[in-house]
Amino acid sequence: MPNTILIGSQWGDEGKGKIIDVLTAQADMIVRYQGGSNAGHTVIAEGKKRVLRLVPSGILHEGKVCVIGNGVVMNPLDLIEEIEMLRSTGVECKGRLFISTRTQMVMLYHRALDRADEAARPEGKKIGTTGRGIGPAYAAKVSRTGLRCGDMLIPEFPELVREQVLETNVKLAQLNAEALDADEMVQTYIEAAEKLRPYIVDTIPLIHKADREGKSLLLEGAQGTMLDIDFGTYPFVTSSNPTSGGACIGSGLSPRRIDRVVGVIKAYTTRVGEGPFPTEDFGDVGKTLAERGHEFGAVTGRPRRCGWFDAVVARYAQMVNGVDFWTLTKLDVMDTLPEIKICVAYELDGKRIEDMPASAAELARCKPIYETMPGWLEETSNVTAMDQLPLKAKAYVERLVELSGGRLGILSVGPARESTIRVGI
Ligand code: IMP
Fold first, then answer.
1. Per residue in 191-200, pLDDT tens?
2. End of a domain among 242, 261, 280?
3. Does residue 201 sit in helix, strand or coil?
């Protein structure tokens, strides 16, 4: 398989976990390049359902090497829990999972800060974060006060943790939140460092050696294009770059070594948390999509907001990421809808626009301009080839790809590995 970046094209939750799992079969090394345990990749394999937040789902395939890249913010306690969960289900990470010495850590004090900051924001200014400390950890990285995984290997580590807890306590006091116990926290992280030590290495030579030897690399992103700190609906975004450019920054692999970009896109749209969402449906359609699509956050359990496919979002994702192949997911969720709408453009202050506005306030004023297609009203979840699709479903898929640009690579019609139709890749 050529070196591949896999990205989410909407507001996350496009079904990347399953597609990564499918593509992993042809990859040798899987590198996660951004985000943290705010993401939840659900993988159903051999009847077992597992939610992975930090460890690349490649770990579920024997012999694959998995890397947590420098662009990730890694919560040591969450990672230990995940490694233990995997071990208890028969998957050993030692010798197959490597964490970059350059990976920033999300500490308990970042989580406290995330929650206190969100609680202190007035209505309308809340982001609706996952409360996992992601924003404060990336802020610490940029402010140059962050601790990296490599710091767990040096004798000064306990003192570095203590310093950060004490500094955070000052900020927490300003937000009227409770102070944290520095001694307790130092002890927690000394123990965590002991457990994670065997996994922490300089992953740059590791990745490059694999590439030089002709191994296939799969770079997996979390969240999606519209949650990107630069390209998303700022400020209602996450704090990293899920878009394809982030893959090189977050792994240390040069852009010249990337062969293709695969964009995962759902046949309708969802969003969790606050922020504009032009095609959101507050009626029966939204309810049907939520129920049939099990649209609840894999990490927070929050219900996801649901609505029609938005081709303005898809075209934008195409531009920003350079998608070579689309992977269209969850088509089966729409099987019972008699009529289906696609947003082809927006109306903003009385004018038709085709491109994504940069301002979230403008996007909030955008009204979708819809095209309507008939529903197929037949089950698609048992379809195994494109020519078995009901004609109306096929027409819908073709229209989405036409509006989005690029080619169809994979069509997914159910959560299991088996419910996957390979078309172009
Ligand atoms: P944070 O990443 O926890 O700071 O949250 C910022 C925004 O990104 C919120 O709207 C979250 O709901 C959203 N978000 C973060 N991770 C995910 C994800 O994996 N799927 C969908 N939305 C997410």
1. 999 999 999 9
2. 261
3. strand
